[in-house]
Design a protein that fits this description.
Blueprint (H helix, E strand, L loop, with lengths): L9 E5 L6 H12 L3 E3 H14 L7 H10 L2 E5 L5 E5 L2 E2 L7 H10 L3 H18 L1 E5 L2 H5 L5 E6 L2 H14 L6 H17 L12 E4 L5 H15 L1
Parallel strand pairs: 1-6, 1-7, 2-6, 7-8
Antiparallel strand pairs: 3-4, 4-5
The chain binds 2'-deoxycytidine-5'-monophosphate.
Length: about 230
């Protein structure tokens, strides 16, 4: 897959938490031979910087100041994925802590934070192309790309998947609590004024509720190749 003219080759994959975006997007990127970029990791990195600084994620002015000053960068790895660096150091696995996810969901509502991260996302995709995963890739970051996929799954399935992941990470939490957090996150991601998660007619929607990840990846590859 190559860029045509000065248009970068970008596959936009959007959808709510817990639909299996990351695993599927990473595998699709490998199949297509383009870099994978998890944009949620960038919002989580800003959240980590905010928490490390002892600031309150609800304090917009403080968050915007920290995000503007943060030394954030992307490093291309041998496996074809970008990893996010804060002050030159990888942010994984610290950004996967539930409190960082919660803070990320708040800091991502601030337009000035989004502007900075969107600029980084566009620059990296223009240089290398990307399978890019997030909430606003097909609506805001690269609205002109012909390759847009929206992954969905029923809330019950998403909560169960997320619950299993957390148990594997050693976190003790009930399914009901996971479902409550997921519903809250959905409300914030879809209800915010700045770049809300929104499915429109320019996407191909794939419901992952009843599909194994291999099937989802195969369907996404078909969608991309048909559209290219
Ligand atoms: O996909 P994730 O759970 O790692 O994302 C963390 C938070 O960042 C989530 O609440 C939504 C937000 N986000 C966003 O607003 N825009 C993106 N492109 C990616 C993530």
């Amino acid at each position: 897959m190559t860029a045509r003219g000065d248009k970068p080759f970008v596959v936009a994959i959007d959808g709510p938490s817990g639909v299996g975006k990351s695993t599927a997007a990473r595998r699709l990127a490998a199949r297509l031979g383009v870099p994978y970029l998890d944009t949620g990791a960038m919002y989580r990195a800003v959240a980590l910087a905010v928490l490390d600084a002892g600031a309150d994620p609800a304090d917009e002015a403080a968050v915007v100041r920290i995000a503007a000053a943060a030394d954030l960068s992307l490093a291309g790895g041998e496996d074809g994925s970008f990893s996010v660096l804060l002050d030159g150091r990888p942010v994984e696995p610290r950004i996967r802590a539930p409190r960082v996810g919660e803070a990320a969901s708040r800091v991502s509502t601030y337009p000035r934070v989004r502007q900075r991260l969107v600029a980084l996302q566009r620059a990296s995709a223009r240089a290398f192309g990307a399978v890019m995963e997030g909430r606003d890739i097909g609506t805001v970051v690269f609205p002109d790309t012909p390759h847009k996929i929206f992954l969905t799954a029923s809330p019950g399935v998403r909560a169960r998947r997320r619950h299993e992941q957390l148990l594997q990470m050693g976190k003790e939490i009930s399914l009901a609590e996971v479902r409550r957090e997921l519903d809250e996150r959905d409300d914030r991601d879809t209800g915010r004024a700045a770049s809300p998660l929104k499915l429109d007619g320019s996407y191909v929607e794939i419901d992952t509720s009843q599909r194994q990840v291999d099937e989802v990846v195969a369907r996404m590859e078909e969608v991309v190749r048909q559209g290219s």
